[in-house]
Design goal:
Elements (H helix, E strand, L loop, with lengths): L9 E5 L11 E5 L5 H4 L2 H6 L5 E4 L5 H11 L8 E4 L4 H4 L8 H10 L5 E3 L1 H4 L13 E4 L1
């Protein structure tokens, strides 16, 4: 954000101990991907300056990713992004280790959901889905 002159703030959620370094633009918080409502309740999200961008990069397991998408999905506003990292597990041959992983979660979340579209311009920037985030750039419409 600094490189692009964006005056923004990062909230990082993890189950591990936060790093010891500090930056006033970054808040490290405890958060479990299977319980996102505890770390990021709806009223707190509503109080944040907009626009938001949520990047899901937890344990790559289907249920973790789907839980995060289902929590943040309805709380996002038009034009905001949900980005799912590492949905390339199918291409890497490891999706079975994650119960289908992020890609399966994306497919489940998008099935019948007209609130989000896959942003083809971002997914296909270097070629059709030449990204670690295959179909993982979701824009609220």
């Amino acid at each position: 954000m600094t490189s692009y002159g964006i005056d923004g703030h990062v909230y990082s959620f993890d189950i591990d101990t936060p790093p010891t370094w500090r930056d006033p633009r970054i808040d490290f918080r405890f958060g479990d991907a299977l319980k996102p409502e505890e770390a990021a309740p709806a009223d707190w999200i509503a109080s944040l300056p907009r626009p938001l961008m949520v990047i899901e990069d937890a344990g790559h397991h289907y249920l973790m990713t789907l839980t995060v998408l289902r929590h943040f999905g309805p709380l996002m506003q038009r034009g905001e992004y949900l980005i799912v990292e590492d949905s390339v597990t199918y291409e890497l041959g490891s999706a079975h280790e994650y119960d289908g992983g992020p890609r399966r979660a994306l497919e489940t979340f998008l099935a019948g959901n007209r609130d989000y579209v896959v942003d083809r311009a971002l997914c296909d920037f270097y070629g059709e889905n030449v990204t670690w985030n295959v179909n993982g750039y979701l824009r609220r419409v």
